[in-house]
Write a structure and sequence with these properties.
Number of helices: 1
Order of helices and strands: EEEEEEH
Low-confidence stretches: none
Number of strands: 6
Radius of gyration: 16 Å
Number of domains: 1
Oligomer: single chain
Distance between the termini: 58 Å
Amino acid sequence: MTLIATLPDQYLERDTIADMELDETRWVQPWAMSVDVGQRCWLNGRFVTADLPEGTARIAIRRDPSGYTVYLPEDETWTPGERIPWTGTVAGDVLPVLKVQHMKELAYRTGR
């Protein structure tokens, strides 16, 4: 009989897009968002988030009761695609984006 190890809870990532609380704002890498050929935006809920913009975490995501709003910097662009770009991602990991706004709107909203 082969035993299979289980990963202790302390090693599980819990700061993902899907784990965000309501009214919470977090930061992610631009490639956490995909755009389909209809120019609809999607997030990969498995991407790890950060408290602040750091390194490559350059876009902000806010989770409201109605859904996710993404705040984009001016210098980022996306190429629409016909399929989910994230290898190993299943349909349940893909989250729709309710609104896309310029990063200035986040600064206005938070007073920063």
